[in-house]
Fold this sequence. Notes:
Number of strands: 0
Distance between the termini: 69 Å
Largest sheet: none
CATH topology of the largest domain: Tetracycline Repressor, domain 2
Shape: globular
Radius of gyration: 21 Å
CATH architecture of the largest domain: Orthogonal Bundle
Structural class: mainly alpha
Low-confidence stretches: none
Strand content: under 5%
Number of helices: 11
Order of helices and strands: HHHHHHHHHHH
Amino acid sequence: MNKMPKQKKRRQTxxxxxxxxxxxxxxxxxxxxRVSVEEICRKANVSKMTFYRYFTNKIVLVRHIRDVxxxxxxxxxxxxxxxxxxxxxKVDLMTHWKVAFGDRIGAGFIREMVSIDDVVASVKxxxxxxxxxxxxxxxxxKDIDPEFLWMVIDxxxxxxxxxxxxxxxxxxGDYQYQMRTLIFYGLLSRAEVxxxxx
Length: 198
């Protein structure tokens, strides 16, 4: 059984990382659809053969980058969730992180990544688990079913997929803040909520 020399293994790891870094820079600037494998290889300073050694095609590369983003997001949300602060502050921190993330990678690339649905089940499971836990702790209303909230958010995600959010929001950050306010704080002002006793 031949073991690959450490130096060669490091070089291969570095080449794969170079491909991912180059693709991420190009995708966030131009969107994945407008970027060719040749452009990625040129920016990463690798051959097409090297590219295909690590990724069978561009979609596999987009999924790889998307999966890294999803894991980073889960890790960040778990960090925020573990903080000993009120739920509303956690929502604010999560929203600020999502806005900064959206600014970094661009709305076009987000839209392309959202259209790949094979990660939705794990996101849904994590989201519902967090909401159910918050509901048990009394941090969110008990009269709203987390499954219903997921359905609403899933429907609203069509605004990202089709880009129609741009007709009323200045940028993706504005969209995120408005979504946060609507979903987590509702339509009523705090004064109205206090008046109604809910």
